[in-house]
Amino acid sequence: MPGAADLSTDPDFFALLTESHERLVGRRLVPPGRDAAWLYGQAPFAVLAHDAAADPRFIYANRTAQARFEYDRAELIGLPSRLSAEAPDRAGRQALLDAVAREGFATGYRGLRVAKSGRRFWIEDGVVWQLVDRAGIVRGQAASFSAWRDA
């Protein structure tokens, strides 16, 4: 998305991701002492986030997520997040996002996703949570997963 802010190592966005996760899910997203640069470039698990628009667009994807989906940062940021799933699988994805909007988070998520090349893969044991700032304003949703396999 041209002109989109680069949130990859932004400390305020890192705080939004990690504080929302800890507050809603009840555990830390990253180990103590790790920062935004580590989460973006070195974390062994995928993290993605989309905005709060009616048709949400990706605003963040760490390098592990980029590798899974086969997009670089410039291609992924601004992409409608619904395109991470094939059309037949979008209803299930939307049902999950609706549940997260109601409940604040979901754990143990398993879903079929599609990479840029068309390769299909399963996300295993994912966590999805609301991005809620310190003022209580919902800024979007985020997901993390550390297990995946080709479909």
Task: Give a verbal description of the structure.
Helix content is 30%, strand content 29%. The chain is of the alpha+beta class and 151 residues long. Strands 1, 2, 3, 4, 5 and 6 form a six-stranded antiparallel beta sheet that branches. The radius of gyration is 14 Å and the shape is globular. The chain starts with 10 loop residues before the first helix and ends with a strand. The mean pLDDT is 94.
Task: Describe the secondary-structure layout.
Blueprint: H1 11-25, H2 36-41, E1 46-50, E2 58-61, H3 63-69, H4 73-76, H5 90-103, E3 105-114, E4 120-132, E5 138-145, E6 147-150
Antiparallel strand pairs: 1-2, 1-5, 3-4, 4-5, 4-6
Question: What characteristics describe this protein?
Answer:
151 residues; alpha+beta; 6-stranded antiparallel sheet; 5 helices; 29% strand; globular
Dominant shape? globular
Query: Helix count?
Result: 5
The total beta strand count reads 6
Largest β sheet strand count, sense and barrel closure: 6 strands, antiparallel
Helix coverage percent of residues? 25-40%
Query: Average pLDDT value?
Result: 94
Low-confidence blocks of residues = none
Span between N and C termini? 29 Å
Order of helices and strands: HHEEHHHEEEE
Radius of gyration: 14 Å
The helix/strand class is: alpha+beta
Beta fraction of the residues?
A: 25-35%
